[in-house]
Amino acid sequence: MNKDELSGLIQEAVLIAQKEGKLPCFDIPEIPINYSEKKEFGDYNTPIAFSIAKQINQEPESIAKIIVDCLLAGRGAESAETKDGFVNFHFPDREWQDSLNIVLEQGKEYGSSRKGKGKTMVIDYSAPNIAKPFGVGHLRSTIIGQAIYNLYKFSGWRCIGDNHLGDWGTQFGKLIVAIKKWNKKPLKELSVSDLQALYVQFHHAAETQTELVEESREWFKKLEQGDKEARGIWEICVKTSIKEFARIYDILGIKIDKALGESFYENKMEAVIGRARRMGIAQESQGALVIMLAGMSVPLMLLKSDGATTYETRDLATIEYRTRKWKPNLIVYEVGADQKLHFEKVFKAAEMLGLKKDVEFKHIAHGLIRWEDRKFSTRKGDTIALEEVLDEARKRAENIILQSKENQSIVSAEKEKIARVVGIGAVKYNDLSRQPERDIVFNLDRMVTLEGNSCPYLQYTAVRCQSVLDRAGTAKIKPGTKETILNQEEKLIVRLLRIFPEIVERAAESFSPNLICNFIFELAQKYNIFYEKHQILKADSQEEKSFRLALTAGTRQVLENGLKLLGIEIPEKM
Ligand code: ARG
Fold first, then answer.
1. Three-state SS string across 242-303, please?
2. Which residues belong to CATH 3.30.1360.70 in the chain?
3. CA-to-CA distance for 115 and 103, rounded, in angstroms?
4. Is the pLDDT of residue 409 over 80?
């Protein structure tokens, strides 16, 4: 029985109660069905009596009791009861075993749905900036963005991932000035860190030589006007950086569908500006062209006083393009919280421009990654290059996991691969297991530990399940058929397996991959408790053994499906 069926049953019970005069007439509100965290609230429960109580001014307890009486009298649930005004359902063991069978039948597809059928979402994520290193900030966007993409795809949506590269804007004027003034290398040999250093040098120099800023403006203007020299330098910067980013995406195992960077909109901004003028919502202000936004103290700037376009203009052109091209129902921006105001302005202006028809915008404003005592800062060079982080995580993973005696037989090529999968997994999980909005303090030790809510712990549990299955040696695990009563540990695991699809749905709806993390962590814990306490291969009966193997296979499957949504692999050994 699923949630919809349960809420159907309640609705029926309420209707019967109304017909029999036990409840007065009222419009039946939506009936939420919740998974019970606590045993005394059954397997599922609903707080429906509380909302009815408000409508008809009666005690929730008495309403819940009437509903339960009608439920039990009708074709109702096998067992329903009330507690503290809640209506609780208990499922028979058979029902739980059926759920386990479903997990095994659906395998890799378990947890997926057709909920998003016919709907399209565009997700804007990663978006590093040309000529700057790919820092831990963009790492967050990349990892969370990819997980959200995966969640929506798994829920049946058509998804388009778009890497809105920072490859246009006034910073290129600064970079060109710096290159022309201070660079001694052939342009083609410039690395991303050279470019970064030149950019930092520009900022230092501009503190005293104010004319540099003016010069950089001129150069950006030239770039926008198609000046050959400016274009040439810009192109080399873009190429160098993109090559660098590609290497990082490769390490992370991430592939983004499109990479329509800011420069792609260069020839599409004119149309948006024209539209704003025609609609009479663009106005001159101190030489610049702006859109005033109701209720906001700062306007959106379409053109600066020197005629240069802005990041904001490009985002408006991007919305125009995306809505026209893909007709999405949802556009998600996985970008740091420091751009909150930017997106508020852009969304508001898009609405005024009539670009927000039948489409929702969502900015997932992820928190910062910072040091214990200070922020990361690219401008001052106080940041960890992503690759250093990944390398370090790999090394530590190798130390922690591969020191144990049972792993002595693993050959070194295998070791390296395991360390990579565990190291990268730890870095990703570190980002995904917190609420996106919260800041994260950077702590490598915590990331690669085998204890508590960490990726290595989950991977280890999945490997443990697999090794039980390997030792059992049965080619195909048969679904559970245990006729005896499930013990407490078994029941807790099956309960969790059963609600996985709901967790996927909730995680997608609330843009919270951390719900998947919490869930698979709980599952791994419950499985390990079961594993310590009960025999699997040496179970008392054949029937019990095959049920426990099925339980192990189901756990392994859900861990795998959950980790896959997070973009995390499971090593073969550990
Ligand atoms: N490149 C920008 C930055 O690093 C992020 C771009 C986000 N996406 C967007 N459509 N504005 O700050």
1. HHHHHHHHHHHCCCCCECCCHHHHHHHHHHHHHHHHHCCCEEEECCEEEECCCCCCCCEEEE
2. 3-91
3. 18
4. no
Tell me which residue of 172, 174, 234, 176 sits closest to 202, measured CA to CA. Answer: 174
> How many A from CA of 264 to the centre of ligand 1?
14
Q: Is the pLDDT assigned to residue 78 strictly greater than 80?
A: no
How many C-alpha atoms does 40 have within 13 Å on its Cβ side?
3
Tell me which of 125, 130, 164 to substitute to probe ligand 1's pocket, judged by most ligand atoms within 8 Å of the beta carbon.
Answer: 164
Q: Which of 448, 531, 521 is nearest to 487 (CA)?
A: 531
Q: pLDDT tens, 341-373?
A: 999 999 999 999 999 999 999 999 999 887 777
Helix (H, G, I), strand (E, B) or coil at 46: strand
- CA–CA separation, 468 vs 461, rounded Å? 11
pLDDT digits (tens, 9 = 90+) for 257-283: 999 999 999 999 999 999 999 999 999
Query: Residues with Cβ < 8 Å from 160, sequence gap 6 or more?
Result: 120, 121, 122, 123, 257, 258, 326, 328
Tokens of 432: 């995904």
Residue 103 has pLDDT above 70, yes or no: yes
DSSP letters, 410-466, are S-HHHHHHHHHHHHHHHHHHHHHTS-TTS-EE--HHHHT-SSSS-HHHHHHHHHHHH
**Residue 420: other Cβ atoms inside 10 A:** 19
CA 362 to chain centre: 13
pLDDT at 440: 86
> From ligand 1's centre to the CA of 143, what distance in Å?
15
315 lines ligand 1 (CB under 6 A): yes
Distances (CA, A) of 141 to 148, 340, 474, 508: 10, 14, 42, 16
Of residues 317 and 573, more confidently modeled: 317
129 CB near ligand 1 (under 6 Å): yes
Residues 6+ apart with CB under 8 A from 180: 233
Ligand 1 center–CA 114 separation, angstroms: 31
Distant-in-sequence, close-in-space partners of 59: CB < 8 Å, separation ≥ 6: 53, 85
Q: Whose CA is nearest to atom 8 of ligand 1?
A: 164
- Encode burial over 484-504: b for 16+ CB neighbours within 10 A, e otherwise: eebeebbbbbbbbbbbbbbbb
pLDDT of residue 433: 94
Smallest CA-to-CA distance from 165 within 265, 232, 247 is with: 265
- Dihedrals φ, ψ of 381, to 5°? 75, 10
Terminal alpha carbon distance of the chain = 38
CATH superfamily, domain 3-91, is: Arginyl tRNA synthetase N-terminal domain (3.30.1360.70)
Determine the residue of 124, 332, 339, 383 to mutate for testing ligand 1's pocket, defined as the one with the most ligand atoms within 8 A of the Cβ atom: 339
Atom of ligand 1 at shortest range from CA of 339 = 12
Q: Is the CB of 97 under 6 A from ligand 1?
A: no
Distance CA 121, CA 161 (A): 9
Q: How far is the CA of 446 from the centre of ligand 1 (A)?
A: 29
What does DSSP say about strands 120-124 and 158-162: parallel, antiparallel, or unpaired? parallel
